[in-house]
Write a structure and sequence with these properties.
294 residues, mainly beta, Pnp Oxidase, Chain A, Thrombin, subunit H, 9-stranded mixed β-sheet, 6-stranded antiparallel beta barrel, extended
Length: 294
């Protein structure tokens, strides 16, 4: 049961309750946006909940079990709240949502109904539909380590220890040309082909500043490096746009040693036996794999 103070309880139990719903969205970069289904703006806790964006929410389905609660937030695409660029650039991915029931005549009488995160966002004509995921959806995620031959650390994190600000693993370069998912940049001779495969590219200036993408393949043609991306950027980028490119790691022990000299921090189990051990048998020169078929 949600705790309700006496003031709020009195407002909620009034014969003619003047209630509305407010949604506060907090992006991972700290930006806060407030929307409401009321016909006037409402302000509390330092956030202005805007009324002019057509915000509406579906009924919140909630149960006493561990199944995630679900609902949708719908509204009009707006450059001030949530626009096409925001969706394309993933600015609201995993943003936090707080859902309030508020007495619009007295915003101090309010009840925090649910908190969660934004899941899938879909366009629908001139509007959007954002999926609300309650905090219980984290119970569906795998927690802990999985024993495997590849490293399970993220390149550059605390467990990995590689300093990605080192010039050996990062570079800044200007775009020479771009087409679809390929970016051509000035090539640093210290970085051979494949060095940035699996790494990231970040746009440092222009309208897409801050946007990141994963590099599928890094090729070299003379003094030009060609970066093929898994997903195209949200919009075309102009020549001379500045990028930061960071090396990638394929999570193998040999790469950890030869490329990063970091085998001491390798977080995989390269010598763990696989399922093929069941088909091995002793023989001259060591174990052999039985490939005979009946």
């Amino acid at each position: 049961m949600l705790p309700v103070d006496a003031h709020t309880e009195q407002a909620l139990s009034a014969a003619a309750a003047s209630l509305c719903t407010c949604w506060r969205i907090t992006r991972t970069d700290g930006v806060e946006i407030g929307v409401t289904d009321h016909d006037r703006d409402i302000e509390f806790t330092g956030t202005v909940f805007r009324s002019g964006d057509g915000a509406d929410g579906t009924a919140l389905a909630s149960g006493a079990d561990l199944a995630p609660d679900n609902a949708d937030l719908m509204g009009i695409l707006s450059s001030d709240v949530l626009g096409d660029d925001d969706i394309d650039q993933g600015r609201y991915d995993e943003a936090r949502i707080d859902i309030w029931r508020v007495d619009w005549t007295d915003p101090e009488a309010r009840l925090l109904v649910k908190s969660g995160t934004i899941g899938r966002i879909e366009r629908s004509g001139a509007g959007y539909r954002a999926e609300f995921r309650s905090l219980k959806h984290y119970l569906d995620q795998v927690v802990g380590r999985v024993y495997g031959r590849q490293c399970d650390a993220r390149l550059g994190d605390r467990r990995c220890g590689v300093d990605l600000t080192d010039g050996a693993y990062t570079a800044q370069a200007q775009i020479v040309s771009e087409s679809a998912r390929d970016l051509s940049i000035n090539q640093d001779p210290d970085h051979p082909a494949g060095w940035f495969t699996g790494g990231t590219v970040e746009v440092l200036d222009g309208p897409l500043a801050g946007t990141r993408a994963t590099i599928r393949e890094h090729a070299v043609a003379g003094n030009i490096a060609i970066l093929s991306l898994w997903d195209s950027l949200a919009a075309p980028v102009a020549a001379t746009t500045l990028l930061r490119v960071t090396a990638g790691c394929d999570k193998r022990l040999s790469t950890c040693q030869s490329k990063f000299a970091n085998a001491v921090n390798f977080r995989g189990f390269p010598h763990i036996p696989g399922s093929d051990i069941l088909t091995r048998y002793p023989g001259p020169g060591g174990d052999r794999e039985d490939r005979e078929t009946a």
